[in-house]
Amino acid sequence: MKKLTRALMILLPLITFGQENADAAKPSPNASWRIDYHEPQVLETQCKFEGARFLTPKTSFTVRQDATASKGAVLLVEAKKSTGVLLAAPAPVNLEETPIMRWRWRILKPIVVPPGKEEPDDQAAVLYFGDGTLLSQKCVGYRWSVNTPINTSGVTKYAAGMMTVAHQTIRNKSTPIGEWVTEERDVLADYEKAYKKKPDSYFIVSVGANSQYSGSHSIAEIDFIEFIPKK
């Protein structure tokens, strides 16, 4: 009897952990907004490509079937020495009630950084939350890097200073290739910390990938993106 009790004590945390992983793979039942990719027309009806640069190839965003996704399809993000972001404008979301941006993603082919070389401003996948106007945009960015340590943060300006990104590395090569990961970030708190003000009620969520500086061919997948309440 003592041996059985001891065995159950060992197995119970493992069973619980497995259930948590299963739950993490599913969209939340209390999301105020969500985008997923089980319908191919979602790219035409809810998304817009931006971020092209002269003489630089465009990052590719397509929908493909994937049995490991929550609804059987993913957004495939493929960067071949390219740059670009795919934007989505959520329906009105009350960030006071649902400030947590939650998403599921993985890297299938990472950016290549040669040994001894400094990591360039390339990411196989990055998610942005931001607002602003055409001439003044502010956002927070959550990066999947390679060698950059997790929790490394900084502020970078793009487009001749018209876009400001307060970015943070939340994943790197320590996460195995092909492993799905579900993230949760309090974008309201992160934005306020970066810019000392609340974001606009109308904001943009975007997925990006850049590989032009490293000359890499990277591949990532996004399962879903949603906004949920704090737990």
Description:
This protein is an alpha+beta fold. Helix content is 16%, strand content 42%. It has three helices and 13 strands; from the N terminus they run αβαββββββββββαββ. The protein has helices at residues 2-24, 42-45, 187-195, and strands at residues 33-36, 47-50, 60-65, 73-80, 85-88, 100-109, 123-133, 136-144, 153-158, 163-171, 181-186, 204-210, 217-228. A hairpin with a 7-residue loop joins strand 3 (60-65) and strand 4. The radius of gyration is 19 Å and the shape is globular. 33% of the residues are buried.
Throw out a few tags for this protein.
single chain, 231 residues, alpha+beta, 7-stranded mixed β-sheet, disordered N terminus, 6-stranded antiparallel β-sheet
SSE run: HEHEEEEEEEEEEHEE
Overall shape: globular
Distance between the termini: 38 Å
How many individual helices?
A: 3
Quick structural overview:
The protein has three helices and 13 strands; from the N terminus they run αβαββββββββββαββ. It has helices at 2-24, 42-45, 187-195; strands spanning 33-36, 47-50, 60-65, 73-80, 85-88, 100-109, 123-133, 136-144, 153-158, 163-171, 181-186, 204-210, 217-228.
How is the secondary structure organized here?
Blueprint: H1 2-24, E1 33-36, H2 42-45, E2 47-50, E3 60-65, E4 73-80, E5 85-88, E6 100-109, E7 123-133, E8 136-144, E9 153-158, E10 163-171, E11 181-186, H3 187-195, E12 204-210, E13 217-228
Parallel strand pairs: 8-10
Antiparallel strand pairs: 1-13, 2-5, 3-4, 4-13, 5-12, 6-11, 6-13, 7-8, 7-12, 9-10
